[in-house]
Every structure is written in structure tokens, then in C-alpha cells.
Amino acid sequence: MLTCVHERGRREIIMSKKAAVIKGDGVGPELVENMLRVAEAVGTNIEFIQCEAGAEWWQQHGGDSLIPEETWKILESTDAAFKGPTTTPGGAGSPKSVAVSIRQKFNLYANVRPVKSFPNTQIPLGDVDFVCVREGTEGFYFAKEIQLTDDVFISIRKITRSACRNVARYAFEEAARRDWKSVVAIHKSNILKQTDGTFIEEVRKTGENYPGIEMEEYHIDNIAQQLIKNPQLFNRKILLSTNLFMDILSEECSALVGSIGLIYSANIGDSYAMFEPAHGSAPKYAGQDKVNPVATVLAGAWLLDYLGEKENSKAIFEATESVIAEGKYLTYDLGGSARQSEMVDAIIKKLR
């Protein structure tokens, strides 16, 4: 909470925004701690409320969810959330992931991953600049599987017109915000005639409301090879697809910028959002002060922007890009030898 004093002595109480923070598993806690260091250095007024979730918590407490009830209450009482990398246990009967649970609870239908080359990085196929938009609440992540016999198992893919409309609208709006002229809809409706057929039908309908933005269509297998053959074809475009397809494609796209440690992401709905790095929890690197902090730091900066601190967000992005461009403090995946904390120290020094 902030108190502002005006010229004539009138006091005005301004309630600060609140964000839930899940530190996560593996390398998550150290990454999130460094993100919070950067947010503090830039002078944020957001109140961060830390809470538990993830496989490590679940292994100690059990239950049918990776998220404790106390954390759900915190999430429901805050303006947004930040989630560090979390581990999702495998095997029949284990809980769904933390991210999927939160996306479905708050209807965060748009998972958004900007894919943009940074200066002074090892770019394998040239500069790229586009945004991957993924439907985040259904598809195969609906998580309904059925055993019919000892030999036959079925996974159900859920597609609804409402979810398709929501994510399509977000994609076209994002293109308009960036003054980009194209949305690329990715599907396989020639095989998945009803589910992908419904998806592409709703995207086409939505596109009719945006006459200044072209809609392109690619089959999933074709675009997978086009992204390697000619990735610049998609620069300044929004790539849009269903949940599993874009989950896989966005991982492929991360390789185009040299490291998934540079890919920050958001999960956005109509009244809530959750921000996170795109990469996993990498437990083998836990506690080694080694993993690239950029995705986590910039996901945190995006959260500040979402909660109204646009100048603070811009400052973090500029400081981070400057550190990468200088090349003195880069982690191993970017060709350097700096520790995670050293790279974050360099970002903070730029802010100050």
C-alpha cells in the first residue's frame, strides 16, 4: 500500500498490486529469487506473496494435486501470478501439471511466447521475430485417458468453439497491438476433421473481424519443416495453434534463438494472468547457480507490465538486452562462463 501526499496536504491511499509467486522445483527457487532481486532493484511497488506448489511439495504431502489449498487461496486473492519451473510427475494416477491446473482454473486460454533473436547470441538460422500463441486450456491437456482393454488405451482431445474463439481473438488482437499484418493458423484438419476442423473454422470467422490482418494456414507437419528451412518467412507474424501442436512447435522455435533459456512466456485470460519461463525445472542443475536467468527475469518484467508498471518493465528488458549484447556476463548456454547470479548482478547494475 502506498500513501501519496498532494500539494494541499490531501492524502490518497493507493493499494499496491499483489502477485502470487510459486518458486517451483529444481532450479526454480534460485531463478525466482534472482527475478525478485531484479524487481526489487527496479523499484517495483508490487507485493509478491510466495506460496508452495510442484512435485517436491507433492512428494512430501501427497494428494491429488500439485497445488495445496493454501496456494489456491493466494492465487484467488492476487492480481496475477508468477510460476517458476515446476516438475510434473509421470505415471498413471499422478496429478496434472501446476501450469495446466492454473490455466484451467482461471481460464488462461492464451499461452504466449515471443520468439525474438537477441544480439550477440549464437543464432543458428538467422534473426527471427515472431510470437507463438497456444490455446492453453484444452486439447490433449484435457487429461482424460481411458483404458479399453489390456492392449488398448485412448486419449481424448477436447476442442470447444468458445476456447478456439478466445485464443483466435487474442492472436488477432496481438497482431494489431504490434502493427503486424498476419496471423498464421496451424492445424491438421485434413486428418483431424472435427477437432482441428472446428479450430480452423473459428479462426477464419474471427479473422473476418480484422480486415487489415491477413490469415495464413499451414498444416502442422509443413510448418515444422518450414521453420527450419526458412524461419524468416514468419517474422513479424503471430503463429497460432492448439495446445499440444503449439507446445511442440514453440520448443522448436526456441532453438532458433539459440537457447530456451531466453524464452519467457505468459498465460493470459480475461481477468488474470500467470507468467513463467518456458523451460523446465532441470533438477540436475539445482543449486549450481548455472542456469540462464533471462527467461525468468523477462517473464517477471512482463508481469510488471501487466500490472501497470510499464516503465519498470521496459527498464528490465533494456538492461537485460544490454548485458547480452555486451557479452561479458553470459551463462554457458549462451557461450559464456558466468554464473546465473553474476549475470543477474550485471542486469541490476545496468538498472542502477
Automatic annotation (TrEMBL):
Residues 18-347 form the Isopropylmalate dehydrogenase-like domain. One of its GO terms (molecular function) is metal ion binding. One of its GO terms (biological process) is coenzyme B biosynthetic process. InterPro entries: IsoPropMal-DH-like_dom. SUPFAM superfamilies: Isocitrate/Isopropylmalate dehydrogenase-like. This is 3-isopropylmalate dehydrogenase. It comes from Candidatus Methanoperedens nitratireducens. The keyword Magnesium applies. Keywords: Magnesium, Metal-binding, NAD, Oxidoreductase. Its EC number is 1.1.1.85. Its cofactor is Mg(2+). Belongs to the isocitrate and isopropylmalate dehydrogenases family. The gene is leuB. Signal peptide: none annotated.
